[in-house]
Design brief:
The chain starts with 6 loop residues before the first helix and ends with a helix. Among the domains are: 80 residues, Chorismate mutase (Chorismate Mutase Domain, subunit A); 83 residues, 3-Layer(aba) Sandwich (D-Maltodextrin-Binding Protein, domain 2); 81 residues, 2-Layer Sandwich (Alpha-Beta Plaits). The strands form three sheets. Strands 1, 2, 3, 4, 5 and 11 form a six-stranded mixed sheet that branches. Strands 8-7-9-6-10 form a five-stranded mixed sheet. The protein has 13 helices and 15 strands. By secondary structure, the protein is of the alpha/beta class. The structure holds prephenic acid.
């Protein structure tokens, strides 16, 4: 009988898979050993600097055809499986499941972490502060809407460390159990999502009543219970509530991205490509802010963000949130921070962490195709 043209390839793929599985298990046995030593030494299971070094080394040596993004995505799950063997990592985020915060958390910690959805951002900070979660993932700024005020206020008030960041593309879909757009009489959506899809809604669903929900995931839940309705949500929320996608990418501005930060309670070691987040206040006198900024320019440090926020304790005074290139332990960053602290009335370093690339955000619809949900 003639051999099927695929069988030779499939046989070799099966053999390679067995070898990959064997290698993964050998890696996991070493990881278990590392876990035992870390427990004896009282070290944290999660080491973001080491994880970034592992991924960076692989990407730098990747000769293809696997894309660098695929290498990172595969290793995200391998590292998640490693941590799960050592001690499942408890990750708090603003819930319910399948919010954009949840997707951001999965993009950093993989599918096998222990996810702990919280009702409010205050609860997210509280559960981390009480050490009931190891890390938390919170939104800090959006490319269209700017800073997330409540997160900024909590960073000022609480003692937590910023240990990581990630950029997530916010791609909205119209999802429903209804067969098509003509059957839709109601829309459930988060107010931000409505704002970001205004043009599409007026062209396609003009006059249809909109019900505001606390999150995109709640919107999906409500649409699932009402066959004449639709939700504006992400593809994962739709999938998990049994909705199908009526229209994809309905946001007015493609490239809508949210930056999330990972919070922990311990500092990161330098990786060689880090960012440091800080917040400060200055005296009410001419040139005070300029003088602080000069401290960073003086040492040639790039400032990637600066944003002001009203000081809620002292009305009409302002706090400045800034990100600079480099790690708190780098000599020039230390020198710049020393100089800046003499020119501020208050300065708090929030943490140093591996830098993520804003121009290459995580795209969940692409991830979905790779991982099959
Ligand atoms: O090297 C370590 O510290 C490990 O625990 C191993 C490992 C890995 O799988 O490579 C797992 C978890 C850490 O966050 C970093 C790396």
């Amino acid at each position: 009988m003639k051999e099927h043209p695929l069988s030779r390839y499939r046989q070799e793929i099966d053999e390679l898979d067995m070898r990959i599985l064997d290698l993964l298990n050998r890696r996991m046995r070493l990881v278990q050993e590392v876990g035992r030593i870390k427990a004896q030494l009282g070290l944290d299971t999660f080491d973001p600097g080491r994880e970034e070094a592992v991924c960076k080394r692989l990407v730098e040596n990747n000769s293809g055809p696997l894309s660098d993004a695929s290498v990172r995505a595969i290793y995200r799950e391998i590292l998640a499986a490693s941590r799960t063997l050592q001690q499942p990592l408890k990750v708090a985020f603003l819930g319910p499941h399948w919010t954009y915060s949840h997707l951001a958390a999965i993009s950093v910690f993989g599918h096998t972490a222990h996810y702990m959805p919280q009702a409010t951002l205050v609860d997210v900070f509280d559960i981390l502060g009480k050490k009931l979660a190891h890390v938390a993932v919170v939104p800090i700024e959006n490319s269209l809407e700017g800073g997330i005020g409540q997160t900024m206020d909590l960073l000022y008030e609480r003692t937590v460390r910023v240990v990581g960041e990630c950029y997530l593309e916010v791609a909205h879909c119209l999802c429903s159990t209804a067969p098509d757009v003509k059957a839709i009489r109601k829309i459930y959506a988060h107010p931000h999502a409505v704002g970001q899809c205004r043009r599409w809604l007026s062209e396609n669903l003009r006059g249809v009543e909109i019900f505001e929900c606390a999150s995109t995931a709640r919107a999906a839940q409500s649409a699932a219970a009402d066959p004449q309705s639709a939700a504006i949500c992400n593809t994962k929320a739709a999938e998990n509530h049994g909705l199908h996608i009526v229209a994809e990418r309905i946001e007015d501005h493609p490239g809508n991205t949210t930056r999330f930060i990972v919070l922990g309670l311990k500092d990161n070691a330098p990786t060689g490509d880090d960012k440091t987040s800080l917040l400060f206040a200055v005296a009410d006198k001419p040139g005070a802010l300029y003088k602080v900024l000069e401290s960073f320019t003086h040492y040639g440090l790039n400032m990637t963000r600066i944003e002001s926020r009203p000081n809620r304790v002292h009305p009409w005074q302002y706090l400045f949130f800034a990100d600079i290139a480099g790690h708190e332990q780098d000599e020039i960053v230390r020198a710049a921070l020393n100089e800046a602290s003499e020119r501020t009335t208050f300065l708090k370093v929030l943490g140093s962490y591996p830098r993520a690339n804003p121009l290459n955000p995580i795209r969940f619809d692409v991830e979905r195709a790779r991982f099959g949900g």
